[in-house]
Amino acid sequence: MNRPVLGAVSLSVLCMLVGCAASTPTVRRTPEVDALFADYDSPERPGASVVVIHQGQVVLSRAYGLADVEHRTKATPESHFRLASLSKQFTAMAVQVLVKDGKLRLEDRVVEVLPGFPSYLGEVRVLQLLQHTSGIWDYEAFVPATQTEQVKDRDVLRLLARADRTYFPPGSAVRYSNSGYAVLALIVEQVSGKSYAAFLRERVFSPGGMASAVAHEEGVSTVPHRAFGYASGEGGFVPRDQSNTSAVLGDGGIYASVLDLAAWDRGLDAHVLVDATAGARAWAPVTLPDGSSGRYGFGWFVDEDQGRRRLSHHGETCGFTNAIVKYPEQRLTVIVLTNRAGGTPWSLAQQVADLWLGVPGTGHPWPFEGMPNAR
């Protein structure tokens, strides 16, 4: 087995960047974590990065396999993976920042904020887009598999105009929709007067400690230490880095490293961008009219695991599959990023979290049954 590498940054430099705590228990757990990621630890195949943040400090950071198979570039904690639907928490935060600025209200009707939003969606509110209770159709239903031109966030409005009704009355149920977060990105642009990518860079990434994260626009921005996506094919892994929806930013177009995400996690706990009240609302599941929980907050799934509040999200897109699990009260977060289609990084993230929790989780499995794949 090839040893995982830390690449251009040593663990000591990583500690200076995001804070580390050397501990004997962590040293003992490293072989256990390596064993869980054995399938990714190969000099021939696309790989993975994993980070564990406990009590505000990075206690483990590992990388396995290749970030770029063609050029034999090893994955490191600096490798930037496409986050897929892990991006949604950043879109949600951008909205919360605008709310904090007094430029937007969660209760605003989208049609009154965003020009071109279809009139049949007149009762849809910003809050409902965040919580997946808007009932709007997923734009991917209108994109033919044969289409080669990439869809952008602005195209989502045109695609939504092909429908004439919502799945259900807005606010009455939960249905995961990538359209909602693409529309939220457009709202960020409309209200801020900046591009979505620029607003994230200036108001979310930079103050959140994510110096190298990027909402990637081909031909406009560059992804540092970029990991490229792959899928299993006949005879091995084949490039599969882009699809016809990979250019939509609001629902899944952010690239970041586990170093970025470790800093981001610490910023969330320290309420760097919004205050504790706003943060708590983002981590509270929506309550539906019948009193049941919709199990989604603002860019996070929310449930309980053996009485512990658990936040999570998975992300699946062309050539990348990722997961994050966070226990706020235990101040424990595990993030797994992979540059291959398939696999179950959510299971790996949970198993790693269980090592630190000291007891196997027995709560609801995730991704939650009944929820479509999160891009």
TrEMBL record:
Signal peptide residue numbers: 1-21
Domain of life according to the entry: Bacteria
Record domain Beta-lactamase-related: where: 34-343
Keyword Signal appears in the UniProt entry: yes
Assigned keywords, A-Z: Signal
Protein name, as recorded: Beta-lactamase
Organism: Myxococcus stipitatus (strain DSM 14675 / JCM 12634 / Mx s8)
